[in-house]
Amino acid sequence: MTNRTIVVGLAGTFVGMTALLVIGGIVLHPIALALAVPFGAVSYFLWYHASGRLHDQARRSAAQAGPTERERARQRARAEANRERAYRAAGTTDGGRGASGRRRGARGPGGAGGRDPRDRAPAADAMTEREAYETLGLDRTADSETVRRRYRERAKRIHPDGEDGDEEGFKRLNEAYEVLTD
């Protein structure tokens, strides 16, 4: 039985209870009418959910609201990881900064001295998204949960400490996972 079937069944049950309470309120006692109101509201929201309209409304609201704080944090983390990758490709390990904390070659606030490694193109040997999906054996429509699941399956199988260990394959698998999670 699917989730939608269960919600439709619950909505039907609440509609029936609402009808009984309305009839009971008219025939027996008005307090039953007061009880019918919350049952009616619950019936409406269950129907709204079962019809898929609640999900659509939530997605529209989220799209209008823009990125959440969690998404902004992910974007900042991706940008930082990309900067670090660019620094490594440029051959620097300290982010282009010397012991003083300022960028090497920077003259004043404009930094007109040296070139920032972030301005360079990514390394030619960097894995592309297409190669990452091929490494994991997935198609481009795979969601993040599928990517994570496939990564874990393959990582268990080819981890260097395992019996079928393949160090180079494991490094390539990790690189593919990083590309797809960034």
TrEMBL record:
Keywords: Membrane, Transmembrane, Transmembrane helix
UniProt xrefs under SUPFAM superfamilies: Chaperone J-domain
Pfam families, A to Z: DnaJ
InterPro entries xrefs: DnaJ_domain, J_dom_sf
Basic and acidic residues composition-biased segments: 68-87, 115-133
CDD domains, per database record: DnaJ
Region Disordered, annotated ranges: 58-147
Domain J residues, every copy: 131-182
Membrane-spanning residues: 7-26, 32-50
Protein name stated in the entry: DnaJ domain-containing protein
